Amino acid sequence: MRPSDPPSPNKHRSRRLRKKLRVGEFQEWGFQFETELKARVLDEEVALVDSFLAELIEPRSLSLGGWITSGFVVPFGRGSMTEADRQAVQDWLQARPEIQAARVGPLIDAWYGPW
Questions:
Q1: H or E segment at 93?
Q2: What would the pLDDT profile of 32-60 be if each residue is shown by its tens digit?
Q3: 37-49 b/e with 16+ CB inside 10 Å = b?
Q4: Rounded distance, CA 24 to CA 13, Å?
Q5: How many CB atoms are closer than 10 A to CB 8?
Q6: Secondary structure (3-state) at 14
């Protein structure tokens, strides 16, 4: 077993350990996104990231790892993303005139992921 492999789900663990490892009922979900911008101008990208954070990420108590061109979104603190959160991000990205194309991935395990 490599260090990045998730803990075996079939092994009996105490509730406290499952919570610490974020497995079982404590598993947390997030998702990746990628965008293609119409123009790559740093000042416009910074303004777009600021809008993304102010209009969507912070009001929904989410966290963004990455940039406007690609990133990973999870809840701020403990918890999981919902399909409604994922859809809200997708709708926001697709509605922006600065973004040519946006792809939002499915919900995946935020701690152990598919990688």
A1: helix 83-95
A2: 999 999 988 888 999 999 999 999 999 99
A3: beeeeeeebeebb
A4: 10
A5: 9
A6: coil
Give the global pTM.
0.80
Is the Cβ–Cβ distance between 87 and 73 less than 8 Å?
no
Residue matched to tokens 């990688």: 115
Per-residue pLDDT at 24: 81
Residue pair 98/41 in contact (Cβ under 8 Å)? The answer is: no
Answer yes or no: are the C-beta atoms of 66 and 30 closer than 8 Å: no
Q: How far apart are CA 48 and CA 21, in angstroms?
A: 35
Distance CA 81, CA 50 (A): 21
Judge contact between 93 and 100, C-beta under 8 A: no
- What is the rounded average pLDDT of the residues 61-90? 94
